[in-house]
Write a structure and sequence with these properties.
The complex is a heterotrimer of chains A (591), B (269) and C (205). With 591 residues, chain A is mostly helical. Chain A contains 17 helices and four strands. Chain A folds into three domains: 241 residues, Cytochrome C Oxidase, Chain A; 186 residues, Cytochrome C Oxidase, Chain A (Up-down Bundle), CATH 1.20.210; 62 residues, no CATH class. In chain A, a hairpin with a 2-residue loop joins strand 1 and strand 2. Chain A is globular. By secondary structure, chain B is of the alpha+beta class. Chain B folds into two domains: 115 residues; 145 residues, Cupredoxins -  blue copper proteins (Immunoglobulin-like, Sandwich), CATH 2.60.40. Chain B contains four helices and ten strands, in the order αααββββββββββα. In chain B, helix 2 packs antiparallel against helix 3. Chain C has 205 residues and is mostly helical. Chain C has a single domain, classed as Four Helix Bundle (Hemerythrin (Met), subunit A) (Up-down Bundle), CATH 1.20.120. Classes of the chains: A mainly alpha (591), B alpha+beta (269), C mainly alpha (205). At the A-C interface, helix 1, helix 8, helix 9 and helix 10 of A face helix 1 and helix 4 of C.
Chain lengths: 591, 269, 205
């Protein structure tokens, strides 16, 4: 018996019986996946509410928002948001969304649930470490949320926490005391959790594939989770020390990021000799791969779902995987494109710009592969399929604006304007979220054993699809007009005339946000009352559809799956219809 | 559903593109008043055309294929895109690759012209200090020398924003410190920028210029303004609660008006 | 179908590297941790290059000598670790356990020497933010954070070695677990081979 097999045996454990063992401290990857998903859902609701508060203030800066004073007496006296509280809410919005939603759900959520199943394993390689990853992530979330309730409130330095603003302490502004320290601690804890998770994903993908599941037969989602975990392994490894050094600057008197001679609030700072640019280098060396950590699982999920509803395989599957690998690799070479005008040597701007533009190529290839796959198909327009198609559209929109920002000469004008806000929201805040929706509508029957309501799903889709374009497309125009970002209010001569555009965006945001409650209702109602889901409601081929809905504790009921086929054999003469499952006997050949 | 998707996507694409084209004055770049600005604008427009075409083509193609996918009957045998993945790879590499090379090449020269070229030796040098939440500007005065900066001497209350020491430092005595950036038109200007507290940024839309001001560094920035008028300098790097209000005015005057203004300021010191 | 715990022959696809999960995970951890140390060393280098007032304060005696002794101790512990893995591979449990304890002891000795050195420096007035020789304050920040991070890893390794030694003797852990611990320990050793030249030797007077 090989060593791999010996280890695989070790991880057959009997199902838990207590409530705590089953639902709280569970080592079952499926429960852990749902826990991550639940955490992500909580986080996205909080993040979305924060965005409504922000948008209301931007449209109507003197608006009294009922209840706001209860959240923070100092931040919103008389329910009117102060500029500093706007910045605090903005910081928390970004931090919560990037870390606890975008890194969480597509990767830790769906990945934890489906990676072991898609490779044919009974669980992850290290179930106990997996459980720890979730609870460490949850701890990080609690520490971050605590920032809302400490004196001074949450930090106001943005999710990017540039030093010295983030490093000097309370003098720099409200929220820059305990709030910022908690931020640094929370993110450091989050990094540790991600590292543990990545170890599990990599090990499971390489070592626990069942017989016949060669790497060439992995579904796109599995490839994406694997590549993402490799990226994360190296990226979070840099953010962790960066947060530690920031923490030391704040509490231990070091000056890693704080230069000499600073005078803040009429007080001369004792710090000397540090470099604010050092923080930016460390942060963005993590930060750029991080955005690909956010989008690659989405790419994998959409690529996995589309063939099911097109009833045809994706064009160029190996090319697509190659694109994902290329994007992952290139993501480490481009961090300086966030720093073109930062004060770093302007020559490096040219150097960073080249790989940034080159990354466009695999992204374009992937997009063309998707579009070319839809060609000649007969699609079944389920909600999941619609969100996949919507993903392609918003990915194009978001990607195109990146093309502008990748060039330093243009970034000179567009840096720190709403053009940038439009860009990253389209790719992260919309595209990645669309993939999460697609994944939910697609996999919810498998995870809960209940079908979601398709009519509600479609209403949700249409309102959201049109809504996000109404919210984020106008931001490009604002950016071209030079509308600066991270402003609490628009008082400058050239900005005041743009406020009506902001008001339009706010209204669109509120309506689109309200539409999300249709999704939430659908989720909960279907879980409780939805029609029972069969094992394979979509007639799909990958391994998750070879088992019950929901799967048993060990995923396959004690069976050893043997894989004989590629994952996207659709539109062929199969034993059960126009598809051949991966586990179908070898004799069932494609036409 | 699919046909609806095709229609909605087409509408979204056409409406978005139309607004880019028929943008009016409000939602577009302001007048270009800088010697290097045309290079930036040209780069922007080239990219706009290139990516605009890609945007419209890809969205409409997606919409078209989805429309077609919706119209097919039961029993349809799927068709593969002619050539398979190869045309995708080739067109991506070729189209995007060519665009990248061209834009990079031309764009680098525009960038280098602004940020990597040495300033004109006859530039008017103006010292800029950014701080929470205002910009201040310093002229060398009649002696043509800037006084030394002493952060420990900064006293906003008495107007000593730069921390000058006129008592012991001769060069500092005639330095002119003001809250607006006043410059003569058609004259090369060299700004030397520093921050007294956190990172700020210097952005003038009309000048097509942008530079973060980092504490601990003295950052040079040079440009030439080609039109007179009053324009806004705004801070674009999040610097605290007053970030949204942190601004100053750029006053571009004729050489004569500027000389007169400077004389008045020097007399007032 | 009922799942009997553990007795179910599993046929797996070969891992591309033929590495069992535990070892693979440790390798991945080591790679990630190497990136973390690289980031901290990068910060140290960045600040050192940017500090015009950087003065190298280390005398040959006691600091460099102590550093050489610590290096010798750690390298020897690498040898004892190799012996432990070799003994475990050959099934010689008692010998393997002895070598594990030897490694653990040497690691603990390293930690003690390191902490004594820290105590001496603190007494001289060195702090994260303070330099008694009047040079750059970043010296203390860089020194304590880099060596501190390494020391944390050494102490963690010492504890792990003790746990593995006890468990290996009792048959709870097998030779693969010893190997996995070995990977970690050699990594800690390797990091020191970067820290010692960059932080000690390059700051020798």
């Amino acid at each position: 018996m090989s060593e791999a097999q010996a280890h695989a045996e070790v991880h057959h454990h009997s199902p838990p019986t207590s409530f705590i063992g089953k639902y709280v401290f569970s080592v079952d990857h499926k429960v852990i996946g749902l826990q991550y998903y639940g955490l992500g859902l909580l986080a996205v609701i909080i993040g979305m509410v924060l965005s409504w508060l922000m948008r209301l203030h931007l449209g109507w800066s003197t608006l009294a928002i009922p209840g706001l004073e209860k959240l923070s007496a100092a931040g919103a006296p008389g329910n009117v948001m102060t500029p500093e509280y706007y910045l605090s809410l903005m910081t928390m919005h970004g931090t919560i969304m990037v870390f606890f939603v975008l890194t969480n759900v597509p990767f830790a959520g769906f990945g934890n649930y489906f990676l072991p199943i898609q490779v044919g394993a009974a669980d992850m390689s290290f179930p106990h470490m997996n459980m720890m990853s979730f609870w460490v992530t949850f701890t990080a979330f609690l520490v971050l949320m605590a920032a809302f309730f400490v004196p001074g409130g949450p930090p106001l330095s943005g999710w990017t926490a540039y030093a010295p603003l983030s490093a000097v302490g309370v003098e720099a502004g409200p929220g820059q005391g305990t709030g910022q320290t908690l931020w640094a601690i929370s993110i450091a804890i989050f990094c540790v959790a991600q590292l543990l998770g990545a170890l599990n994903f990599i090990s499971t993908t390489l070592d626990l594939r069942t017989k016949g599941m060669s790497l060439a037969r992995l579904p796109f989602s599995a490839w994406a989770w694997f590549i993402t975990s490799v990226i994360g392994l190296l990226a979070f490894a840099v953010l962790l020390p960066a947060c530690i050094l920031l923490f030391l600057d704040r509490v231990a008197g070091t000056s890693f990021f704080i230069p000499s001679g600073l005078v803040i609030s009429d007080k001369m700072q004792a710090h000397t000799g540090g470099s604010p640019l050092l923080w930016q280098h460390l942060f963005w060396f993590f930060g750029h791969p991080e955005v690909y950590i956010a989008i690659l699982p989405a790419v994998g999920i959409v690529s996995h779902i589309l063939p099911v509803f097109m009833r045809k395989p994706l064009l160029g599957p190996r090319v697509l995987v190659g694109c994902m690998v290329a994007i992952g690799f290139l993501s480490y070479m481009v961090w300086g494109h966030h720093m073109f005008v930062s004060g770093m040597n302007p020559f490096s701007a040219i150097l960073f710009s080249v790989p940034t533009l080159v990354i466009t190529i695999p992204a374009t290839i992937a997009t063309l592969l998707w579009i070319g796959s839809v060609y000649g198909s007969r699609m079944r327009f389920t909600t999941a399929a619609l969100f996949c198609l919507g993903f392609i559209s918003v990915f194009i929109s978001g990607g195109i604006s990146g093309f502008f920002l990748a060039q330093p000469s243009i970034d000179t004008y567009l840096h720190a304007t709403y053009f940038v806000v439009a860009h990253f929201h389209f790719v992260m805040g919309v595209a990645a979220i669309f993939a999460m929706f697609a994944g939910t509508y697609f996999w919810m029957p498998k995870m809960t054993g209940r079908m979601m309501n398709e009519t509600l799903g479609k209403v949700h889709f249409w309102l959201t699809f049109v809504g996000v374009y109404c919210i984020f497309m106008p931001m490009h125009y604002l950016g071209l007009a030079g509308n600066v970002r991270r402003y609490a209010a628009f008082t400058d001569d050239f900005l005041s005339p743009l406020i009506p555009v902001h008001q339009f965006i706010t209204i669109a945001a509120l309506i689109t946000g309200a539409a999300q409650f249709i999704f939430l209702f659908n989720l909960i109602w279907s879980r409780l009352r939805g029609p029972k889901a069969p094992d394979n409601p979509w007639q799909a081929t990958s391994l998750e559809w070879s088992t019950t809905s929901p799967p048993p504790f060990d995923n396959f009921g004690g069976r050893q799956l043997v894989v004989n086929h590629q994952p996207y054999e659709y539109g062929v003469e199969g034993p059960d219809g126009d598809y051949i499952m991966q586990t179908a006997p070898e004799a069932a050949k494609a036409r | 559903m699919g046909k609806l998707f095709g229609v909605v996507l087409t509408v979204i694409t056409l409406v978005s593109t139309a607004i880019f084209i028929f943008h009016g004055n409000l939602l577009w770049l302001p007048v270009d008043i800088s010697a290097h600005g045309h290079g930036v604008d040209h780069q922007l427009m080239e990219t706009m055309y290139g990516s605009g075409v890609l945007f419209v083509a890809s969205q409409l193609l997606l919409g078209l294929f989805v429309w077609q996918a919706a119209g097919r009957k039961e029993g349809w045998k799927y068709k593969t895109f002619p050539g398979g993945a190869k045309p995708m790879v080739i067109s991506a590499i070729a189209l995007v690759g060519i665009e990248i090379l061209t834009l990079s090449f031309v764009g680098s020269r525009v960038w280098a012209g602004v940020y990597l070229s040495p300033p004109d030796p006859k530039s008017l040098q103006i010292d800029v200090q950014a701080g929470q939440f205002a910009f201040y500007f310093r002229y060398a005065g009649a002696d043509g020398q800037f006084g030394g900066l002493h952060p420990d001497k900064i006293d906003e209350g008495s107007g000593n924003f730069f921390g000058l020491n006129p008592r012991d430092d001769v060069a500092a005595r005639d330095d002119v410190v003001v809250a607006s950036l006043v410059i003569p038109v058609n004259r090369p200007i060299l700004l030397t920028m520093h921050s007294k507290d956190v990172i700020h940024s210097f952005y003038v839309r009309e000048l097509r210029i942008h530079q973060d001001i980092v504490p601990g560094l003295m950052i040079p920035l040079h440009f030439t303004a080609t039109q007179t008028g009053r324009f806004e300098i705004v801070c674009t790097q999040l610097c605290g609660l007053g970030h949204y209000q942190m601004k100053a005015y750029l006053d571009v005057k004729t050489q004569d008006d500027f000389d007169q203004w400077l004389k008045q300021q020097e007399a007032a010191q | 179908m009922e799942m009997a715990a553990g007795h179910h022959p599993i046929v797996m696809e070969k891992s591309p590297y033929g590495i069992p999960p535990g070892k693979l995970a440790m390798w991945c951890f080591v790679i990630s941790d190497a990136v973390t140390f690289s980031a901290v060393l990068f910060a140290y280098g960045y600040l050192r290059v940017g500090s015009p007032d950087w003065i190298a304060p280390f005398q040959f005696f006691p600091t460099i000598v102590n550093g050489l002794v610590m290096t010798f101790v750690l390298l020897t512990s690498g040898l004892t670790m190799l012996a432990a893995v070799e003994a475990a591979k050959q099934g010689r449990t008692a010998a393997g356990t002895r070598w594990l304890w030897a490694t653990c002891a040497l690691g603990a000795l390293f930690a003690v020497l390191h902490l004594l050195e820290w105590r001496r420096m603190l007494e001289e007035g060195w702090r994260l933010f303070q330099n008694p020789t009047g040079g750059s304050v970043h010296f203390g920040a860089a020194f304590f954070s880099v060596t501190g991070l390494h020391l944390l890893h050494v102490i963690g390794g010492v504890i792990a070695l003790a746990i593995i030694a006890i468990g290996f003797a009792r048959g709870k852990y097998n030779r693969i677990d010893v190997e996995i611990t070995g990977i970690y320990w050699h990594f800690v050793d390797l990091v020191w081979m970067f820290v010692f030249p960059l932080v000690y030797l390059m700051n020798a007077k």
